[in-house]
User: Fold this.
Amino acid sequence: MRATLATMERFDVAVIGGGMVGTAIGYGCAALGARVAVLDEGDVALRAARGNFGLVWGQSKGDGMPAYGDWTRQSIRLWPDLAARVSGLAGRDVHYRATGGLGFCLDEKELAAKADFVRRRHNDGHATLRMLDRRELLELMPGCPLGPEVLGASFDPSDGHADPLVLLHGMQAGLLRAGGRHLPGAAVTGIDDAAGFWRITRADGSAIEASRVVIAAGVATTPIAAMVGMDVPVRPVRGQNIVTERLDPILPLPASALRQTGDGTIQIGVTNEDDGSFEIATTTAALARMAARAIRVLPAIKAARMNRAWAALRPMTPDGFPAYAESATHRGCFVATCHSGVTLAAVHAGPLAAGILAGHLPEFAIDLHPDRFRGMTHVSSH
Amino acid sequence: MFRRTEPTDCTISWEGRDIPARAGESLAVTLLAAGVTAFRQTPVTGTERGPLCLMGACFDCLVELDGQQNVQACLAPVRPGMVAAMQRGARHFHQSEDAA
Ligand SMILES: Cc1cc2nc3c(=O)[nH]c(=O)nc-3n(C[C@H](O)[C@H](O)[C@H](O)COP(=O)(O)OP(=O)(O)OC[C@H]3O[C@@H](n4cnc5c(N)ncnc54)[C@H](O)[C@@H]3O)c2cc1C
Ligand code: FES
Assistant:
């Protein structure tokens, strides 16, 4: 490293990873007055931030981990304010619509399983979630041409959806507006102690220094967290997506794996392929299966043309819940990872960013510490 | 804006008026050669848009073609007498072109 201490740029916070989590934290810290750099890879990077489904979603979250449920609901409460800010920053509507969200059931077995889940969530204090039968669904969405197989759905009135690309763009704009730096183009390769600062080196030979480091590298979190003495197992879980041409409004509420965007596009999701591979190719078999199910919900979209399909990788921990921590050996170095980065953007830009600057994470983070993964062999996705 | 290098050999209808065309070229080329740049109005703001990529990727060249909506003009070969119009907003779904 040729750069001398005198010429090396110093920041209060360096965020490693400019995806949905890192950008939210970087924006939040910068908005609170910190000098922030967000370090990211180049255009070919694996980014769930640019390939996700856009739900701001609480109904499926927290089963088996109440802290995650509470953290999610706190984020949903903060979302209207975040939406207003990012829409202003992006110069276009992030299309956040808290219309309530659905989980469609297409046969008796699905209905029974969903009702069981809803009952369990209720007993855990998740009071807004309930089941709707077909008649109630049609009352909620008059004129929606639901297919005859739709028997009912789970419904949470606080759920909604947003445009994840506008969200990312708006938070990035907010980072820059608050004086932060966005430094894409080279992977971080090292984090070293440099007399009171952390020196971060990158693949292009450049380096910066920072008092605090936040590792938010998505599916690449594990090796980077290891550089600061943290064991954070994260694996990729692939999700495929379809978008159709833009259509007149046909589905007023978003559902798990089926939503109509503010622009009129129908987005159809989404696989959970847990094969350990970092490949992001789509497969005809999966796309056909996804489309077939969407058509059972809304037979009219059979006539819609598919415009694009893609796959992206969710960062998944062994128990499927987020992980937040400060390193015990490298003070000032934090890690943050989750597979619901859109939903949690509001708490990441808010209380999490504030906690990182203050040097102690919010209370929820205690239960979400990656130490819980020690010896964990059971693997599930929530 | 554009000058043809080959002669035209037929006409098509655009927004109710006849436009000279060459069979087999793309509808986008026909319209651009005739000075048309507004192919559609966007569903969100109603802004007028025209072709950007001319290779099927950007979906900015959408038109209504022979009664079918959201057709990419850059991918539609010209047939003599075809009838095209601007795509105004999103595809109107409920009265969808089942006949198509
Ligand atoms: C198909 C799909 C659907 C989804 N749907 C939803 C949804 O509906 N709602 C929801 O809330 N969430 C959803 N998600 C999850 C959400 O997209 C992720 O939780 C979120 O993007 C994770 O953010 P991240 O910043 O951790 O990772 P990413 O967004 O993947 O970003 C990681 C970043 O780190 C960078 N990086 C990696 N290594 C390095 C390095 N060495 N140096 C510098 N930078 C590095 C990468 O380049 C990348 O930019 C979905 C995900 C997928 C894949
Ligand atoms: S001009 Fe881009 S798709 Fe037709």
The helical segments of chain B are 27-33. Chain B touches chain A at residues 43-44, 59, 62, 70, 89-94, 96-98 (CB under 8 Å). Residues 27-33 of chain B form the longest helix (7 residues). Confidence is low (pLDDT under 50) at residues 95-100 of chain B.
